[in-house]
Amino acid sequence: MASAMTQQHRGRAILQLAAVLLLASPAAMLAAAGACESAVFPAGKSYTTCSDLPTLGATLHWTYDAADSSLSLAFTAKPAATGGWVAWGINPTGDGMKGAQTLVAFKQTGAYVVNTYNLTGYRPLSAASTPIAYEATELAADDGDNGTVRLYGKLQLPKGMVTVNHIWQVGSAVVSDAPAKHAFGQENLDSEGSLSLTGADAPEAAPAPVAGAPLSVESGDMETQAASSPAPSGGKPSPSPSAAAYASSPVLVVLLALAGFLAIV
């Protein structure tokens, strides 16, 4: 009798454990796959490729249309403090902040704006956008999970630009409706890299600086420097919403087999 009751209790415990693991497995598998692959965006916003950037907990999702050389993107990062800002950009003339054509998301009078800035110097940014080298449309921003801010935009790039030097940054404050200077910790200084827009690693570098090229009228104080530029990163395909459900099927089979085995022991 005692043996039968012990076996019954064991069976119940195993089934309860199986249920918990089955519920947790999709989330765990998505977490293991990477933050960018588990991201969920508002209706109407989806991207073919994503990358977990190496610093500042940032991610980048994008779709590159080679036919018309357009880049649709969603950059996600957590501002350095509540009320701060996030930024992403392309540098066509180098591998640091100076010369970068940037999109910066922050709040003005309580509502998100996305300004464009050509970072050509070290003076503070203004409250208003300044022209950049690429046509920028569909600019928007909203709040993401865990205090992050999501920056959206579409850039019209030159034909054949499939590998770019990109930069990203976060700041802690907005002063007089303009992004204030960011910190200069190691993560801030390392927030740059080379990106293959086609989603595959590529050997070619971004365009070299043009001798004597004029600089824009606007400047910024977001300058960083890195010791060397890494090889281009191509990101990874964004998964379909049902990917986790299909991936968890082997887990279900193993757990059910385990429960059946222990129930008869």
Characterize the structure shown:
By secondary structure, the protein is an alpha+beta fold. The protein is 21% helix and 30% strand. The chain starts with a helix and ends with a helix.
Secondary-structure element pattern, one letter each = HEEEEEEEEEEEHEEHH
Q: What is the CA-based Rg, rounded?
A: 23 Å
The average pLDDT value, as a whole number, equals 76
Q: Major β-sheet, in short?
A: 6 strands, antiparallel
Number of strands: 13
Give the CA-based shape: globular
What fraction of residues sit in β-strands? 25-35%
Which structural class should the secondary elements be placed in? alpha+beta
**Helix proportion of residues, in percent?**
10-25%
Number of helical regions? 4
Strand order of the largest sheet: 7-8-3-2-1-13
Layout: helices, strands, pairs:
Elements: H1 2-33, E1 49-52, E2 59-65, E3 70-77, E4 85-91, E5 101-108, E6 111-118, E7 135-143, E8 149-156, E9 163-171, E10 174-175, E11 178-179, H2 186-189, E12 192-196, E13 236-237, H3 243-247, H4 249-263
Antiparallel strand pairs: 1-2, 1-13, 2-3, 3-8, 4-5, 4-9, 5-6, 7-8, 9-12, 10-11
Helix pairs in contact: 1-4
Short description:
By secondary structure, the chain is an alpha+beta fold. 21% of the residues lie in helices and 30% in strands.
Q: Top keywords for this entry?
A:
alpha+beta, five-stranded antiparallel β-sheet, 21% helix
